[in-house]
Amino acid sequence: MNDLTVLELDALAEIFNISVGRSASALSELTQEPVTMSVPVVHVMPIHRVIELLSPGIGAERLTCVSQMFNGSFSGEAMLMFPENSSLEIVRLMLGSQVPIEQLSEIEQDALNEIGNIILNACFSTIADMLQDTFSCDLPELTVASVDEILQKPESEQTVLFIQIQLALESQNLEGYLAFIMGSGSEANLQQALRGFLEGVQ
Amino acid sequence: MQLFERALSVLQSGVMILDEEYRVHFINRWLNKAFDTSEDLQDKALFDHYPELVGSRIHQAAMQALTSGLPSLLSPGLNRSPLPLFRGQGARRERFSQSIRVQPMMSDDKCFCLIEVQDVSSMVRREALLNKQAEKLNQMALTDELTGIANRRHFNMMLERELRRSELQGTPLSLVFFDIDFFKQYNDHLGHQAGDKCLVAVSDYLRTQLQSYGYQVARYGGEEFCIILPGQAADVAEHLAERCRNEIESLKLKHPSSSVAPVVTASFGVATRSDTQPETQTGLILRADNALYRAKLAGRNRVVVAERQDKELS
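YS: structure for the whole thing
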């Protein structure tokens, strides 16, 4: 797709900022802990670039990934990823476990799945509101694997909306990643929807 | 009744369909029974019937499904029992932990949401049990079975932690090693059970004494014990070792085969990591052990302090 303009990227960043703001409130209510989330930057890039970007920082550590397939005027796969250690920390803080955990038990996996679902749903409903669209999506699925395994898709040139998010929970700052992998044809539709949104704003 | 309807009616988990007004379009037998009411919930407005659920996570999930077409998951870890559902009869009736999925559905251009409920109480109970067992095993791995004090593994962990802290903070760290004089002969003469009792008596006594100072005593081996003194220099450690030596002698445990005294005594070695000199864990332990050995050579029932690390400069 043609590169998004600065305004279009800004609009996206704003949309995601609102989305994570909403999910932070939902998570705070759920866990009775103050949770804040922010979105520093939104990138648009092909998948292989995302893998290149993430690999040095993550190294051999695995990623915990909650993904939901989505369908609308643009379709694809939405993912929320945290380095495995961060997700252990998140679960420990939100479930109030006393014992330090090394592996995710079934209960903890379900909890992470729900956390991912809350954040991804907030993104979809905000995007739907702002861009006057509707989406349907599948129930969340949790995988724990390396960067390569999670992001290895048949088309490494597929465009990804890649967003770094900062999650602050009980004086801990954790970094996670949102990735919206767009199916072919979707990128053009997204760009069109963003243009429509910006025109509406003007 | 259609085969599908019959299947839903004998399903051992809950299925409920709400329409756009949150009215129960369908509810299967299992779920109807689980709700704490003798009424049939079919066609009832769910949130009028249960006003306490208004604004709750399940309400929000249903709303998201009906208005935005998005599915939700309510996990038992974060939502123990979102719906008022019960299992069991009479006195054993209890609200159970649930795993819930909410999915949007369309039919004839109308929006519905499907709520699927599972009873996960046994999973929750099993995990709580596993956690408790894991905690217990952790504890056991660090405890000496006979005396109940810290074992060598725990001691090594504590020493590593205190050594790191003393390096970071630039504070001294002292280590006291001691062992019971002629313990082998005690065992041979009075039997192993008596030997065990002697070890327990000594460690019990010291454990309570040292607790008030905030020091931990650990069992390093057969009749060998050790004490870590964080932030303390050699003089304080020597003083403490002397006190312990005295207290053990004052326990007056009869020791017929000791050539040092008629009662149980112990020999002590003290080593200190200075606040300026770096030292490894092994190095510090070796110096304390060496001092203990010299205490034995010098006649037992005494305290010997290891030489300062930087003594060769003086």
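YS: worth flagging: Chain A has a mean pLDDT of 86.
IM: good catch. Also The interface with chain B takes residues 26, 29-31, 91, 94-95, 97, 99, 105-108, 110-111, 113-115, 117-118, 121, 124-125, 128, 134-140 of chain A (CB under 8 Å).
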